[in-house]
Amino acid sequence: xxxxxxxxxxxxxxxxxxxxxxxxxxxxxxxxxxxxxxxxxxxxxxxxxxxxxxxxxxxxxxxxxxxxxxxxxxxxxxxxxxxxxxxxxxxxxxxxxxxxxxxxxxxxxxxxxxxxxxxxxxxxxxxxxxxxxxxxxxxxxxxxxxxxxxxxxxxxxxxxxxxxxxxxxxxxxxxxxxxxxxxxxxxxxxxxxxxxxxxxxxxxxxxxxxxxxxxxxxxxxxxxxxxxxxxxxxxxxxxxxxxxxxxxxxxxxxxxxxxxxxxxxxxxxxxxxxxxxxxxxxxxxxxxxxxxxxxxxxxxxxxxxxxxxxxxxxxxxxxxxxxxxxxxxxxxxxxxxxxxxxxxxxxxxxxxxxxxxxxxxxxxxxxxxxxxxxxxxxxxxxxxxxxxxxxxxxxxxxxxxxxxxxxxxxxxxxxxxxxxxxxxxxxxxxxxxxxxxxxxxxxxxxxxxxxxxxxxxxxxxxxxxxxxxxxxxxxxxxxxxxxxxxxxxxxxxxxxxxxxxxxxxxxxxxxxxxxxxxxxxxxxxxxxxxxxxxxxxxxxxxxxxxxxxxxxxxxxxxxxxxxxxxxxxxxxxxxxxxxxxxxxxxxxxxxxxxxxxxxxxxxxxxxxxxxxxxxxxxxxxxxxxxxxxxxxxxxxxxxxxxxxxxxxx
Length: 649
Description:
By secondary structure, the chain is of the alpha+beta class. It folds into 4 domains: 5-112, PAS domain (Beta-Lactamase, 2-Layer Sandwich), CATH 3.30.450.20; 119-282, PAS domain (Beta-Lactamase, 2-Layer Sandwich); 290-411, Four Helix Bundle (Hemerythrin (Met), subunit A) (Up-down Bundle); 458-640, Heat Shock Protein 90 (2-Layer Sandwich). Helix content is 47%, strand content 17%. It contains 24 helices and 16 strands. It has helices at 28-33, 38-41, 114-146, 151-174, 196-201, 210-213, 218-233, 238-241, 281-305, 307-328, 336-352, 356-369, 381-404, 406-411, 426-436, 442-453, 458-475, 497-502, 504-514, 518-523, 557-566, 577-580, 604-614, 640-648, and strands at residues 13-17, 23-26, 51-53, 75-81, 87-98, 104-112, 179-183, 189-193, 248-249, 256-264, 270-279, 479-485, 530-538, 543-550, 618-624, 628-636. It is globular, with a radius of gyration of 33 Å.
């Protein structure tokens, strides 16, 4: 099978078509050019059903032949999108090649030059206007010299013409749709600005300081003023300092991108700075919609690949949300550590299945819970009300996911209202009881229990591979997931479902904290691809051992001591490095100052330890700087007698 992944990272749009002119592949740039998605375009869509090209002789058109048998050079042509009617220009080349089974395919490479042509046209128009103005000024000078006797009259006439020209230039600038502001050395806006500023900034910028115009908070205001001082002090070249300038104005419902350009005098000294504000709100919203669609596709694939685990996740999520709603009404008696564990685990599992809306809601609820983590006596009723509202929003997000995917869930027989799947059926248990009371040899009873009442954990472990690959893709890392499951290992899975739920944190930490970026690993003499290894087996003490190991950067003992002290955690740091590592299981411990997308709240490892303790087990961690980290979990092998009561209930 031909691997087209080489085209995935190209900025030019690439399509591969067959002899029927059907699109069999396109990269993300091609989907963006077609204002569609890769999935829709490669579902038997013919290229001339997407694009109409100005040259009907192209092989891409229904009756065209040019490019069928021989490669074409890059040719600039016009095109129109049939779905939206949008038009543009491309530099296009066609290259036939032999693919699978000797069949001929055609690679179509497009370079979108629409923007270049538009900019060139606009530049030419502005240049023509300027040349016209210059010609008028020259003519005015000639007229002034010619009619010197009527000087006052001629000056008045030419002044009127110049005012008209200035008005025209101002109209041209106002038509651009961008905000142009001139900043002086005090950081204040001058009296020259475009009309778009009124809409973008919600006020006339004249005389307003840049930090006030951008609605900076206290810290951002200091940074903005320091940047203004550095720029006009010319301590460094403008090109270097502009990278430190405020680049966005994140007003509610807006995404404004800011660019800066210097104005120099004859001695090349900076006199002013032009700030250009461009409203990218529509583009940002389009990206959000595209990202939402991608997450939906990922979720569907994850559901199909791991239906059993997703069913368990839905049941568990509904149960946990109900529990959180009940607990959130306790006010000052709220157990924040437990609530953080529930929310963080829900966020982790939602992310693992690409349930985007629920993941964001769980994350927002943790943000609302953060003030309750420290001094509860100073917590206002408003903070409690905001947190309770975020938990109710969590339920709304969950309900919305069920509604949006009702057809899919119905087709796959997935329901959050079903009882969590049991590892054994009631009929098997009943038969087991009859065997136990009928005098059958103990060896046969044990064999029946092993074969029919226990299950291998393989399907649960395989799901964590998807978690690692998801994070690797978002962080630009490479990972090889290795599982080593004792083929003889079978468990009463129902007893360990909560443990498997929270174990997602171990894999998120291994990817986020543990594995380095490819260039870091290469510089350290490692393979560019990191390794995350999970192993499961019985021990000699009728326990089950689970290890999660990575070959990443490891955990620094000094960093652990520092973070324990900074966060005021109760832990004796005057111990060996191996003993010190166990501080990572403390509630609130994190090696990061701020929470990231996948870790950093000091909750994940605490949640794992809590579930292991509930099972009567033990968990500890081993780590070596530069070598990697290993998490070891030992839990009792739960017997049927220990799970019969909840199963029967």
